[in-house]
């Protein structure tokens, strides 16, 4: 027996609303400055990791056939987050450009914290929204990405990452032994051209030119330019510089997570540009309770790749025998990824064990490690 409340109850959804705790911490930091500016990153990384250690793993699986009407309280946090995040970013821009009690260093620290909000929460919620079918949710996802100037993530994620994860075509599948800093530069320089190529090919298959109105890059550009204009109006060039800084911090957070999610995990090449289907063992998972609350079950990543449109409260967890598990939740693992020697010491033996378990017949992993195998056909 369990006292877990029915999934339709507000009580069941409230843990996933822990992201709201970041907003008063940001306000406190803006008003008080000093040591209070450390509270927001500590809340997002350290406190969640400590809670993971205290609460352990949650390996219960909800009924995947739960009606959508029962998920109202879970969905609501993702639906209301855009105005909350926009007000936070613009409010901070106005505050620091119209007051003078924060030093330059404190101002930078404040916007680092704002980037933690928009990266740890905003982009994760955008990811959830972009996978849904409703027009409202997809628009909210686009608006959230515009607040971090990373709108092309929608195309790159939906048209490249999901169909081609674990192959050389997917730039955000981190390669074995590739340190995060090298990976980050590679993704920053190849992501936008990769997304443009994907949309160009999609339009070509429909017999449309790249400048056709249905190319979402025009929407991406309009939303981002609108966001820049709004920030300039509120905070001038100084405000725009701080806005760009928080966007960079958010993108860094996103790509740290992408790095962890598939590090060293590749799909078998079947020859002639064909690859095996995506399976649960092609994603790293973590069943840690608190970090899954903050990241709305993103760490149940194998099931997300199996059922991309499955809403986050219904994502399933897998046992060790079916999908690879991380020793810690994503917040702790992304911190470890910032120190490549420590990351390799912890993760490379796990990747090698994964290879022995799932692909004992592959003796030469060099083409997979160097991503020198052919791109998937038609990509």
Automatic annotation (TrEMBL):
The keyword Cell inner membrane applies. InterPro entries: AlkB/XylM, FA_desaturase_dom. Its main location: membrane. GO terms for molecular function: metal ion binding; monooxygenase activity. GO terms for biological process: lipid metabolic process. The chain crosses the membrane at residues 12-31, 37-55, 76-96, 108-126, 227-252. Keywords: Cell inner membrane, Cell membrane, Iron, Membrane, Metal-binding, Monooxygenase, Oxidoreductase, Transmembrane, Transmembrane helix. It is a multi-pass membrane protein. It comes from the Bacteria. It is found in: Cell inner membrane. Residues 109-334 form the Fatty acid desaturase domain. CDD domains: Alkane-hydroxylase. The keyword Membrane applies. One of its GO terms (cellular component) is plasma membrane. Belongs to the fatty acid desaturase type 1 family. AlkB subfamily. PANTHER family: ALKANE 1-MONOOXYGENASE 1. This is Alkane 1-monooxygenase. It comes from Rhodovulum marinum.
């Amino acid at each position: 027996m369990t006292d877990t409340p029915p999934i339709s109850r507000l009580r069941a959804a409230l843990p996933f609303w822990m992201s709201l705790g970041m907003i008063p911490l940001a306000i406190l930091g803006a008003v008080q400055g000093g040591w209070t500016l450390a509270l927001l990153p500590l809340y997002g990384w350290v406190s969640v990791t400590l809670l993971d250690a205290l609460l352990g793993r949650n390996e219960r699986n909800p009924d995947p056939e739960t009606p959508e009407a029962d998920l109202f309280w879970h969905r609501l946090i993702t639906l209301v987050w855009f105005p909350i995040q926009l007000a936070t970013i613009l409010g901070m821009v106005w505050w620091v450009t119209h007051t003078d009690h924060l030093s330059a260093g404190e101002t930078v620290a404040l916007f680092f914290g704002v980037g933690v909000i928009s990266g740890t929460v905003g982009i994760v919620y955008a990811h959830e929204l972009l996978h849904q079918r409703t027009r409202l949710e997809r628009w909210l996802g686009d608006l959230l990405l515009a607040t971090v100037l990373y709108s092309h993530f929608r195309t790159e994620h939906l048209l490249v990452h999901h169909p081609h994860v674990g192959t050389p075509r997917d730039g955000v599948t981190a390669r074995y032994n590739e340190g995060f800093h090298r990976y980050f530069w590679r993704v920053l320089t190849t992501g936008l051209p990769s997304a443009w190529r994907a949309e160009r090919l999609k339009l070509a298959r429909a017999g449309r030119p790249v400048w056709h109105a249905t190319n979402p890059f025009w929407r991406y550009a309009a939303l981002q330019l609108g966001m820049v204009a709004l920030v300039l109006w509120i905070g001038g060039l100084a405000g725009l510089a701080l806005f760009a800084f928080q966007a960079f911090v958010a993108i860094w957070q996103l790509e740290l997570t992408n790095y962890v999610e598939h590090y060293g995990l590749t799909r078998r090449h079947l020859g002639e540009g064909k690859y095996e289907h995506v399976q649960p063992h092609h994603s790293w998972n973590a069943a840690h309770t608190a970090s899954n609350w903050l990241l709305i079950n993103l760490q149940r990543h194998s099931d997300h790749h199996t059922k991309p449109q499955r809403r986050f409260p219904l994502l399933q967890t897998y046992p060790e025998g079916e999908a690879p598990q991380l020793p810690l939740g994503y917040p702790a693992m992304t911190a470890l990824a910032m120190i490549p020697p420590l990351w390799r010491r912890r993760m490379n033996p796990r990747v090698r064990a994964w290879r022995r378990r799932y692909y004992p017949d592959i003796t030469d992993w060099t083409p997979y490690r160097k991503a020198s195998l052919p791109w998937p056909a038609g990509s």
